[in-house]
Design a protein that fits this description.
2 domains; about 260 residues; 5 strands; Outer Surface Protein A, domain 3; two-stranded antiparallel ribbon; 11 helices; three-stranded antiparallel beta sheet
């Protein structure tokens, strides 16, 4: 009797992940290879391709763990978080959460942060390319409109809170150098990760800039940003500080549009 297609698909997927189940009863063998041998070849190729993709997404994590441990991690991840995507590009999106929740990896929290850092790089690399606002364009605005300015930001931008020296570790591994020891900072640091032309880039943000960028991304107008910066600088320097942040964001190509708040 012919089995319904969904049942065949489920049996096939179960065998790919666990090398178990009734899929071999649904496949015909021949003189060249039996049903189990055929399924094992397919399952091995499927597993190898998924591990290859994880290695492409997480080269720093691979470098920190080494070949054997990374392959072990990849196999555990594939079994626990099987792919649900039509595009293999997005497989591995929950690696950071997996590392944070799974023994023994959770005992080394810098591994999860490395995964988050590398995934963020991939996100900004793949994000849509929008026309950036220039400093010259904003300079054409009348001074009285600046207070009500609100900004739109390019999708090729991520903000990531890190406790460990992950960017330094990644840079060393990417350059083929011996990485420094993992070090935890006394306070978490917000890192800006963005794409400049075709290259992912990143830099740490000081506390006041991190606050200002988060607020601006959420739609806070320029006047309110200046007021909020009074927590760190005096009233005379707050507008200059905010303008300096904005100039930096513009130079990075982060600002993709602007409008004016209702109060303006």
């Amino acid at each position: 009797m012919t089995r319904p297609l969904p049942e065949v698909q489920q049996a096939f997927a179960r065998y790919l992940l666990q090398q178990d189940g009734e899929a071999t009863l649904l496949i015909q063998g021949d003189q060249k290879a039996g049903a189990r041998e055929r399924m094992d070849l397919y399952a091995g190729a499927y597993l190898a391709r998924l591990i290859e993709v994880l290695g492409e997404h997480y080269p720093g994590l691979w470098g920190m763990l080494g070949d054997d441990q990374f392959w072990q991690l990849a196999r555990e991840y594939i079994l626990e978080r099987p792919s649900t995507f039509h595009s293999i590009r997005w497989f591995g999106d929950r690696m950071a959460a997996f590392l944070s929740a799974t023994e023994p990896y959770r005992e080394y929290p810098f591994l999860a942060e490395m995964a988050a850092f590398e995934w963020a790089q991939g996100l900004v690399f793949d994000a849509a390319d929008l026309q950036a606002v220039t400093e010259a364009e904003l300079q054409q605005l009348p001074p009285e409109q600046w207070g009500s300015l609100i900004f739109e930001f390019a999708p090729a931008m991520q903000l990531l809170e890190l406790h460990w020296n992950v960017p330094d570790l990644w840079q060393a591994l990417d350059g083929g150098e011996t990485p420094p020891d993992p070090e935890r900072s006394e306070v978490p640091v917000i890192w800006l990760i963005w794409r400049q032309e075709l290259d992912p880039r990143w830099r740490p943000l000081e506390v006041d800039e991190a606050w200002a960028l988060l607020q601006a991304r959420d739609g806070t107008d320029f006047a309110t940003l200046c007021e909020g910066l009074l927590e760190w600088v005096d009233p005379q320097h707050a507008p200059l500080r905010a303008a300096g942040f904005l100039r930096s964001w513009l130079s990075h190509g982060l600002v993709s549009g602007y409008a004016f708040s209702a109060s303006g």
